[in-house]
Amino acid sequence: MRGNSFRLVLTIGVALTADHCPAQQHGRGQAPDRHAEGLAIRIRLSGEEVFSRETIRLAEDTTAAILQAAGVHTSWVVCGAGSPLPVSDPCRPPTDPADLQFEFVTRPGTGLDLLSLAYAIPANHSAAIVYPLVKTSAVKFETSEGIVLGVVMAHEVGHLMGIARHAITGIMEGTLGRKQYLLASRGALLFTSAEARRIRGRLTTLGKPTR
Q1: What is the domain range of residue 123?
Q2: Considering the entire predicted model, what is its pTM?
Q3: Mean per-residue pLDDT for 201-208?
Q4: Residue 44: which of 110, 8, 83, 95 has the closest Cα?
């Protein structure tokens, strides 16, 4: 960790599990750029009730704007508690690399830094977000929970789309602090052009947009 910032972690491990209920689906962001038309990902949120609806909406909008700047459309599925799930339910565990699942957890996974805001599990197309640290970061750095959460989700999407290493600038920096959240609130914390190309290339290779 550098200074007073919190870490973001890429890890390979066992995905966390949760019960779900029938989903609410919606889109965020404008239509994709011409050069990337049809490139899209879907993100499922599980356990989102730990945040207010306003926080979730701002987080979704923040993540969607960052991905839109990279040429990727984002749609969302909000999953609550309850089971069992029918085969067609969009809250079933993802099987497609462009179909991602984020769960909100109380603490970092075993063996991870206690200041880890989130960690990605690429093998399961999923990520876990440590929601108490999101709330703490918002207070510490005098920003909104929605901005912090949106930045963290966009960062983890980057990892799940094949960006393994952290960068020295932009959304894929390994630590987050006041500067990064301020940039995000202004729409200026983005993927680098090389990172954006990598994400688009990954989705193009998949060959079947998720909407």
Answers
A1: 6-205
A2: 0.80
A3: 82
A4: 95
